[in-house]
Amino acid sequence: MTTPSLVQRPRRLRANAGFRRLVQETRLSAADLVLPLFVKEGLTASAPIESMPGQVQHSEASLPTAVKAAVKAGLGGIMLFGIPARRDAVGSEAVAEDGILQRGLRSARQTIDDLTAAGQPAPVLMADTCLDEFTDHGHCGLLRQRPDGQTVVDNDSTLTVYGQMACLQAAAGADVVSPSGMMDGQVGVIRAALDQAGFTDTAILAYSAKYASAFYGPFREAVDSTLVGDRRTYQMDPANAREGWRETALDLAQGADIVMVKPAGTSLDILHHVARRSDVPVAAYQVSGEYAMIEAAAGRGWIDRQTAIIESVTAIKRAGANIILTYWALELADWLMA
Ligand code: PBG
Question: What H or E segment, with its residue span, contains residue 333?
Answer without folding.
Answer: helix 329-337
